[in-house]
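Side project, low priority. Logging it here so it doesn't get lost.
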Amino acid sequence: AVTALGMLRIGTIEREVSVELSADVAGSRLVVTGSTTVVLADFDIAVPSAPVVLSVSDEATIELQIYLSQG
């Protein structure tokens, strides 16, 4: 695993994030996966609310999968 640093833009707000990445070979493709957690308020996102929901986190997990193949 490796940690990658980069910029994440949601709407008009851009913040630096770090993402833990790992890679595996699946057939003839390289699959890179990773995830990071962001605070919703950092991107000016209001925490959703509904009367039937007991609680909602002020954080969100962003997951990614990148499939690379030679072509």
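Brief comment: The longest strand covers residues 13-26.
Revisit when time allows.
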